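WARN retry 2 of 3 for item q-0093 after timeout on previous attempt; input resubmitted unchanged.
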Amino acid sequence: MILEKVCKMNLSKNNDSIKSEVYTEDKTIQEMFLKMTGRLNRLRYFKRVIVVALVSLVVSFPILMIFIDDLGNITPLGNIVNAIINLATFIPLYCLDVRRLHDLDKDETLAKISLGLGVVGTIMGMNNEDLSSISAVEMIIYGIGSVIGLYILLAPGTKGENKYGPDPLG
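OK item q-0093 returned
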């Protein structure tokens, strides 16, 4: 009886140390898109960002079609609905950015900056009727956000284990 308990304790200790050294795949939708711990390599990050973008497009397109006036412009209510959909996509995108930055051995500061730029850009864009009405400030915001996004996507991750977890590439 005592031997069984000791074996189980040692086995669980060994399993815990193995888990900390080996990357474990995300299994659920919540783990894939809403988890903010651990690391995410470039390919997984890219695939998941594409999924978020496609879901946003599939959800927003039919809804926005309802809010187009006779001249083909999106109505003010349509702009609000579009902003809400955009803001909802920022949650999984922020979580993905954090995990990708962890792979680069960085904290979430750039993800917070990217999120802030996205929120400000979305709010400022609510008044735009078309692409020609984007202001210079919005262009700068989108430009900075794009540079941050490209860095997060393209920078190679830390080889081996870092303070955020094991290497997602094994």
